[in-house]
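Handoff note, outgoing to incoming analyst
You'll be picking up this chain. Sequence as last confirmed:
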Amino acid sequence: MLRRLFTIAILVVGVSIVGYNFTASASQGKGRNAEGKKLFMQYCASCHGADAKGTGPAAPTLKMAPRNLTKIDKVDGKFPFTRVQETISGEGIIPAHGSSAMPVWGTYLRRNKGENFAKLDLYNLTKYIESIQQ
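Most recent structure output, in case you need it:
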């Protein structure tokens, strides 16, 4: 019961954060994916922060600290696009994303938007995260 209330609280924070006007560095620069940014603010910023550095308003309540998404390790010199997309969708195995304490966004998007829109959203979100790498 407590886990369910926690999950609902995280979702409420995530939804309420959408209407907030962020001016963090994640919103600046060219090459940013506008739809991906919108999705990030809606689904990710409550935990990872508007700047994607792991300092969102819900971060202190999590069992595991959210990752700094601006410094994802490259694989063979390239952004690990598929791994990141699989992690967001729930296909990658990461404790924070794999438990009921933190939503697996791929499942949520497929259920609420359908398979094709979920794939597009996951792609756009991953492209946005790729675009904010430092």
